Input
Amino acid sequence: MAIAVKQTARKRDAGRRFAGPGQREALWGMLCVAPAVLGFVLWYLGPLVASLVLSFTDYSVAGGASWTGLDNFQRMFGSDKLFVKALKVTVTYALISVPCRVVVAFLLALLLNQKLRAVPIFRAIFYLPSIVPLIASSVVWLWMFNPDFGLLNSFLRDLGLDKQRWTYSSDTVLPSLVMMSLWDIGPMMIIFLAGLQGVPGHLYDAVSVDGGNAWNRFFTITIPMTTPTILFNLVLSVIAAFQTFVQAFIMTSGGPNNNSLFYGYYLYRKAFQDGQMGYASALGWVLFLIIAMLSVLIFRSSNRWVYYEGGA
Amino acid sequence: MPATVYSYPGGALRRKTLRILGRMLLYALAIGGSALLLVPQVWMLRSSLMDINQIFEYPPSWIPNPWQFHNYPKVFDTLPFLRYYKNTMTILIPSVIGTFATASLAAYGFSRLRWPGRDLVFGMLMTTLMLPYAVTLIPTFLIWSRLGLVNTFWPLIVPSWFGGHIFYIFLLRQFFRGIPRDLDEAAVIDGANPLQILWDIILPLSRPALISVVIFSSLNTWNDFLNPLIYLNDDRKFTLALGLAQFRGLYNSEWHLLMAASMLVVAPVLLLFIIAQRYFVEGIALTGIKG
Output
């Protein structure tokens, strides 16, 4: 109590030094964040509004723009089969890849949370794939997926199994890319690990005292206490999955049969190959709305399954 | 999960045996997992050192014989990779400096200075995490192209001087908040202004977080593909990532050269990771802490 009083007194002194009760400090504060706030306006808010406006036009690189109202959106949901395809591909990929990634990252984090020797080495190795530039990992995975000489088919051959065509067949291209996406889960695993290490030990002791076994400890303590971390990773990886681009660009060009026509790649083609900036802006806004809706849904659902300490 | 192994009922001896078996299982999983995750990288390295015949052999061997080191000079002969390195660094260095300066300023303003509406503004900036690039890409491109700056490095550098990515501000803010307030209050009494406090007290105490930010923003620029793809179209201006994509387009089936080219892009990153591994891990872990 005495300390608190002393600190407030000191704060008041400090405020006085800054002249005006805290006014100087406020001014400095706003000055410090000014570049970042300006950046927010210039690179996020401004373009967001501009692309909404563009999405109601037929702006093209070839020539001018005129207001076309809802035409772009009608075209999307009415006649553009490729848009529907891109949406389907992307949603399917996200639906499979995100849960797999979250589960695998969580399991790896649990493994590293055990008292093993050489944990730092394992951690570094598990993390390593995620620093490899996506363009380089796309190239090496493409080589491993090669149906004739690739590493994966030679494994299958060793096991006496049939060859697969991996990214070269419309049936297996998405599962192959999901498999590839399980490779670079390092950051997610590290965040889970931090979450696991933040679980207070006395909670586990309490379960043990009550006669609970490791299974009980896992389901009554570990999982509930790490749900905020699960939420965080879930949201970020959904957003990332919806923005998949490089794999389609480098590995498959959206094929075969448009079965890896990711939304981001389709948008890129519309904007920068066909020059249809207006239509591409509309595509961008639809993606934005989808991601925003999904995020809201996940956050809404979170008060049913996420446990916040102190009930906040 | 694997911890269940410990909890079988039974005698002390049996429990001990199970415990040892459990440990062995955990190690087997960790070692097996590591081996699996290392395969693509090792495969890239191994393929980059083989000649065209070895690369198509079955069963594939893991050790090149003979070692084809001249795949690397050949890559440099085929495409100007040295220039790609130079271009990449020309973008990277000013971007990282800009991110460092403006992100630490912003993080300071959001964590240690009090002003009305602060947390609201920070929350607003955090929403950009959920904004897909696709929705801002086109207007941004159109503006740069109006300014006649497409096919220059400016569009790739300038945004870093406006706070960079919110992720860095968030990371630094988390760290700054953990520094005891008494320190800056003492400095205020000594007559220091906020910028002096940031420079003399906060930054020196935040070295690990700052190093993480420098590493992540370097890596981000190095690995960036979409922005260079959109803004650079003269191949004399290409970055490494674009150069590799170009190479992949030109030499579709010469996998040994393609792998050597990939190694040229990956090797510096791997080196950085080996030197500064802990800052990667600590930086990421910091953002996972709720706040």
